[in-house]
Write a structure and sequence with these properties.
alpha/beta; four-stranded parallel sheet; about 50% helix; globular
C-alpha cells in the first residue's frame, strides 16, 4: 500500500510564535481570519478538513524523535525559533496568565527555568518538548524531512517576506493581494484585538469561549493585566528579567543560541 504524504508539521519550543503562525497558515489556506479560537484550534491537528489541494497541519512542540513514527506521511516541517531569553520572558508571562504562579513567585520561577534549561512541565508528555536547547538543536540537526526554519524576529521585521517564504515552502499559491491581507490580518495589534474580543465575550457570558479565555485567563487579565498576546516585540526580556538572571540564562543557552545567530545584547 502506498503512503500519501499529506501532513505539514508546525513545530516550535513553546512560546516561540507557534500560535502566531497558526493564524498565518489559517489565512493562507482560507483567505480570512478564523471566526474564533475554537475554529483556529480545529484547523490544526486534522480536526478541520483543509481546502482541496491543501495539506493537513499538525501543531507540536515535540522533538523529532517523539514525532518520527509519523514522518512517513509527512511532507515537511515549519520550525519556528526565537531568542531564548524572549522565550523565557514569554513563558513567565504565560505562567502568570494561567495562574501557575503568582506575581510574588516570579523570581523563584525564573531561577527554576534557568536551572532546568526550559519549563520543566514541558519536558514530559504531552508536550515532549525537552529543554529549549534539546528542542532547537534536535530540529537543526534533523535530516529526514524538509524543514523550513522561521525566525520570530525576522518575521517581526519583515512579515511579508516571512509569509511569502513559508507559502512558497508549502506550495500555496499567493498573489500580492493575499500577501498584503495576510500581513494586515496577522499583525500583533490585530491578534491582540482578536484575543480581546474573546475575553470580553467570555466575561459577558461568564464562561470560557476558547483558548484565550480558558482556565484562569480571564481572571489574570482582569487582575494583573496579563494577556496571551503580551508584547509582540523582540528583546522584551530586557524589561522583564533582571540583569543577573539574564546573564545566568544566557550562560546556559548561549551555545545553542549562537547557532541560530543570536547574541546576548540583541
Amino acid at each position: 500500500m502506498s503512503i500519501t504524504k499529506r501532513v505539514i508539521w508546525l513545530v516550535s519550543y513553546p512560546k516561540s510564535g507557534n500560535t502566531w503562525f497558526r493564524f498565518i497558515l489559517f489565512y493562507l489556506n482560507h483567505g480570512r481570519q478564523p471566526e474564533d479560537s475554537v475554529e483556529l484550534d480545529r484547523f490544526m491537528n486534522s480536526r478541520m478538513p483543509p481546502p482541496k489541494g491543501h495539506p493537513r497541519y499538525m501543531k507540536s512542540h515535540a522533538t523529532p524523535e517523539k514525532l518520527r513514527r509519523y514522518f512517513k506521511k509527512s511532507i515537511g516541517v515549519v520550525y519556528i525559533y526565537r531568542h531564548p531569553l524572549d522565550v523565557l520572558q514569554s513563558t513567565l508571562n504565560y505562567a502568570l496568565l494561567t495562574g501557575e504562579i503568582s506575581a510574588a513567585e516570579k523570581d523563584a520561577w525564573v531561577d527554576t527555568y534557568i536551572e532546568t534549561e526550559g519549563h520543566p512541565v514541558w519536558l514530559p508528555d504531552p508536550h515532549n518538548a525537552g529543554t529549549w536547547i534539546e528542542n532547537v538543536t534536535s530540529w537543526l540537526d534533523e535530516t529526514e524531512l524538509p524543514i523550513h526554519y522561521v525566525s520570530y524576529e525576522d518575521t517581526l521585521a519583515n512579515p511579508r517576506k516571512a509569509i511569502e517564504d513559508v507559502a512558497r515552502f508549502l506550495n500555496i499559491p499567493v498573489d500580492e493581494k493575499l500577501l498584503d491581507e495576510c500581513v494586515e490580518a496577522t499583525r500583533f495589534e490585530e491578534l491582540k484585538a482578536f484575543e480581546g474580543r474573546e475575553l470580553d465575550a467570555a466575561k459577558e457570558v461568564g464562561k470560557p469561549l476558547g483558548r484565550f479565555s480558558a482556565g484562569r485567563r480571564v481572571e489574570a487579565h482582569s487582575n494583573l493585566g496579563v494577556r496571551f498576546f503580551n508584547k509582540g516585540t523582540a528583546v522584551s526580556w530586557k524589561t522583564a528579567i533582571s540583569q543577573d538572571a539574564s546573564e545566568r540564562a544566557w550562560s546556559r543557552f548561549s551555545e545553542a543560541a549562537t547557532r541560530l545567530g543570536y547574541k546576548f545584547d540583541e
